[in-house]
Amino acid sequence: MVLTITEENYLKGILKLSIHADISVTTNEIAALLLNTPASVTDMLKKLSAKELINYQPYKGARLTEQGYKHATFLVRKHRLWKVFLYQSLNIPWEAVQEIAEELEHINSELLIDHLDSFLGFRNSILTAILYQTLRANTP
Known about the structure:
It is built from 7 helices and 2 strands, in the order αααββαααα. The protein is mainly alpha-helical. The protein folds into 2 domains: about 5-70, Orthogonal Bundle (Arc Repressor Mutant, subunit A); about 70-135, Diphtheria Toxin Repressor, domain 2, CATH 1.10.60.
């Protein structure tokens, strides 16, 4: 399923807000994180719910479905790989890496990301194992 950049950012935001606890995230929390209005957030939550990426109940909040969680964690993986690549391989200053990685994380090529992962030598690294364990331990 191809999502818009905005939809992906919402999934990532919900993951960020709920990663340490199996809780629903309120519209106001998402609005504050993404610097948006609660009304706009509500509209997007309805769209994501229709795509079965979140479970949304008005006045109760939203939580990622299994499919939404997989998509959000894949975004985080891509973001982190791009940050390492940009900094270590291209010598881009750390201050600039975050903004560029935010754009690159939305490229929809699993093949590219798998090759980037292999190029960086993370496929069997302890760092990647820890990342995956952390994300799996917090699966909704």
